[in-house]
Design a protein that fits this description.
Chain lengths: 282, 282
């Protein structure tokens, strides 16, 4: 099994022209996709978010059949079992200056790296979170999409080094919790499940959308609501989600511990079944 | 004269590993430096801002002597006369995830492209500006430095296509004007010269610092002050600056025309002498 394999525009390569606007300006988008038993998870939801991001940034949408074919080629070349498929779309190369080229030729970068974070123990015991001091800037035009401007996440992630802490929660300037550096957050209270709105910053997670769908199916109230750290400390339980972990209980946020007893077991199981099971490739 | 020449870590190359964090997260900084008659302008100020940016992001600072040697090598290889030197520093390659590597090996990318914007006519007649709808997000930790997260500028620059419009001004969420997509802005009123504070977004321009120094030398009041579009429309005159243009009068902001008669000629001349004259290389 190869350690890391990359296709650029369908060809094995791991070298990008310096003129690429992904490097120059972070002018592009990415998806981090779980691969299990050689197959991608939540492919359809990842592609839908990618398409929404392209729409928002004015980048021509890549052909979904082409992406699926390149994914299959990559996973075959890597003899992939479990790992992470990173799919990056940039606006491609261009001349000097911010102005997007009139006829951009977007670049497709697909990389596979073997190995997935092990969630089994964590899922039972719950994960540790911290609160980051680094704030999220707000811009409605960039909110929700998974673009390449990720310096805030880098600075926030640099705030802790204890490997037992899985993620750090980030607030906006008003002190509203928005998300983790690499996860979405859910608070359980008597009214049901609440998660922060992502209209001005944050990333509309693929598993977050599964959570929403499954909660609806199960008749569990699920609301987008402003959450301050105090609301999280007062919650009956917390969950986080991302594409690699699925959904996992939170054992502690800084010094505050949570019981996992009140968490909606059926919802968690159902979300995991969808988020962690490979889709049968079309 | 070569069209475009690039050195990566001192070697002629224009191909970057996909694992570079500059591409992955915009995890780096850049400087856009005017080259005239084969020599760089404002090198010292560019390097000072770059060092401040490295400090802020926790990227090890590149050795100034090494950068100067690579600059000289690049300009010699390109047989450079007038053009643009782009100097990019990234945190280098790293494993998957936002966490900065404990011992990063930053990458140095120096590119020279022949040709400079011609300012002579513009400088006399003044330039046209527009107001952009795209807002600047605020984050004190990223304000002032010239980092690689530039999607807001890309989206703002995509708002106009008339080549006679030189730049577009951007506001923060409160509607305060901060800067152009590629320039800083100055308003002349009875009290002197005012320019927006850059404590929560914007880039601390090299020529902006020259403006500040020269205004002080000439005893011209120069203040950082919140400016709304209405303040700009009411101003006796406007100036913009950047490293390639130096400082130039504004002829119009959208439909509003400005006289250039009240502008401080001596200040403009002095700033141009410093900003547009190559420094003698050490």
């Amino acid at each position: 099994m190869a350690e890391r394999v990359t296709l650029i525009d369908g060809r094995p390569d791991d070298c990008l022209p310096v003129s690429d606007r992904g490097l120059q300006y972070g002018d592009g988008l990415f998806e981090t996709i779980a691969v299990r038993r050689g197959q991608s998870c939540l492919w359809g939801r990842h592609l839908a978010r990618l398409a929404a991001g392209c729409e928002r940034l004015g980048i021509p949408k890549p052909n979904p059949e082409l992406l699926a074919a390149e994914r299959d080629d990559l996973l075959a070349r890597a003899a992939a079992t479990d790992g992470v498929l990173k799919l990056t779309i940039t606006r491609g190369s261009g001349p000097r200056g911010y102005a997007p080229p009139a006829a951009p030729r977007p670049r497709r970068i697909l990389s596979f790296a073997a190995g997935l974070p092990t969630t089994t123990n964590r899922a039972e015991a719950g994960v540790r979170l911290t609160l980051c001091a680094t704030r999220l800037g707000e811009n409605a035009r960039l909110a929700g999409i998974k673009h390449l401007n990720r310096l805030e996440q880098v600075l926030a992630r640099a705030e802790w080094s204890d490997p037992r802490t899985l993620d750090g929660l980030m607030c906006n300037a008003q002190g509203h919790v928005i998300c983790g550096t690499m996860s979405n957050i859910y608070a359980l209270d008597d009214a049901g499940i609440a998660t922060p709105p992502l209209t001005r910053c944050g990333v509309a997670g693929t598993v977050r959308s599964v959570m929403q769908d499954c909660a609806q199916d199960l008749g569990i109230p699920f609301a987008e609501r402003v959450l301050r750290p105090a609301d999280l400390f007062a919650a009956r339980g917390l969950l986080i989600s991302n594409a690699l972990l699925g959904v996992v209980p939170v054992a502690s946020l800084q010094a505050h511990g949570y019981s996992t007893e009140a968490l909606p077991t059926e919802l968690i199981e159902r979300v995991r079944q969808i988020a962690l099971e490979p889709e049968t490739h079309p």
